[in-house]
Amino acid sequence: MKERFFTSKQAAEIIGCTLRQLQYWREQEVIVPLIDATGTGRSVYYSQLDLLTLAVMEYCLSMGLSFDICRQTLKKLKEQELEFSNFSEAKRFMLSRSKSDRSLELVEFDLELAIASLREGQPTIPLWLDVIHQQLVEKLKKWDNRP
């Protein structure tokens, strides 16, 4: 994708969240967009990479996860130095209950592990970055073609 930037209003419309959510996520440093303080005010701009991060956050929240778990998940993804810009190699992950401390842990997607967890009645939440990216690409196409 060619590098583009979006205002807060545009980002909220594309991702499907509110302006207040974006503001809160900025305040909590979940996402730190480019802020241009020139002129009389300040403008906030989100890159396409920022939009992908927002889409992952919105997806995790839509799965019923708490804000803190969503923020921790994004932090873990960033710690693993995922190459968000190389979407052809985007990995698939899942959030699965840790047997040691019962918290949700981020692990690479493993169908057999997911099935075993579900059979044990443990939550397993897929986090497929390639699918989230493709959905974002489709939203951007629709957004670009709107009247």
What does this entry show, briefly?
Helix content is 48%, strand content 18%.
Write up what this structure looks like:
- With 147 residues, the protein is α+β, with helices and mostly antiparallel strands.
- The chain has a domain at 5-88 and 129-144: Multidrug-efflux Transporter Regulator, Chain: A, Domain 2 (Orthogonal Bundle).
- Helix content is 48%, strand content 18%.
- It contains six helices and six strands; from the N terminus they run βααββααββαβα.
- The strands form two sheets. Strands 1-3-2 form a three-stranded antiparallel beta sheet. The protein has a three-stranded antiparallel beta sheet with strand order 5-4-6, with helices on both faces.
- The protein is globular, with a radius of gyration of 17 Å.
- 19% of the residues are buried.
